[in-house]
Request: fold
Amino acid sequence: MYIYTMLLHLFKMSRPVNIVIAMVTLSIGYYLLSAMPTQDMGISWTTLVLQTLGFACAIGFANIQNDIWDLETDRVNRPERPLVTGKVPMGVAKISWIVLLVLGIACGIAESLITETGFTSAVFFVLLTVLLVAYNKWLKHIPLLKNMTVALMCATPLFLCLFYPTGLRETETFSLGLADKIGYLYPAMLFAFLLTTAREIYKDLEDETGDLKAGIMTFPLIAGSDVARRLAGLITLFCWALLPLPVVQGFYPTMFLIVAGAIITPCVALIIVFAHKRNYRRSQKLVKVAMFAGLVALLVSC
Reply:
């Protein structure tokens, strides 16, 4: 029973919701490019499975490593977390993030070797690992840059879709151009980047007390909580205002705007309301709901 409980809490440390969002984002990226295994000239199931597992391992190792290095801060901001409560021993957590790091890179290398489509996946997961470690070690201590770095990392599944050689599995006579790929993927990248930036600012607002005690200078601590709250709200509203853009440009059908608008509009309103009430944890969760709703709108309408 103890081992089962420990493994369950270790699993929670990996942030399974974030892993699911990354997996869905990767699949939708390939879907937008008509490159899913079920589509003509799509990638192989091997590619999709290994890349999905690679992202799961990468996100898992980064979050467990982050909890280890943020232990003192979490004693104030997140006293319920497994390392703080002792539900997961520190030694187990350290071994886990190292194993997941190795497995993430191994998935990229395996995909490159098995599918013989070049070393795009291998290089990508090595660079992603370097970025994740750099964030946990240094970048998260730089105000605002840390927020944008996390936002960039949330869009990385789409970057992999962008640079992966889709359309080359069966024949070399067809290849979707980079400009075409950008047209289909940039709206999703932009929305993910903006919403994640807003979510990370709300997270910093929630963690002000612990960050100040730990000597971590975040944007709210430097600019003030009111300025940070307004900036997060403006970014969220700007993202909402951009929803018609890919439809006007002809990349997405009108149905996307109808579905996304119907789901995301109330989310945005509630995000602003809860942030105004200083309920930043609720605002964060609603931003995740808005992001997932946007992905569902893409899947349903495109």
Observations:
- The chain has two domains: 1-176, 177-302.
- The domain at 177-302 is CATH 1.20.120 (Four Helix Bundle (Hemerythrin (Met), subunit A)).
- The chain is about 75% helix and 0% strand.
- Confidence is low (pLDDT under 50) at residues 167-174.
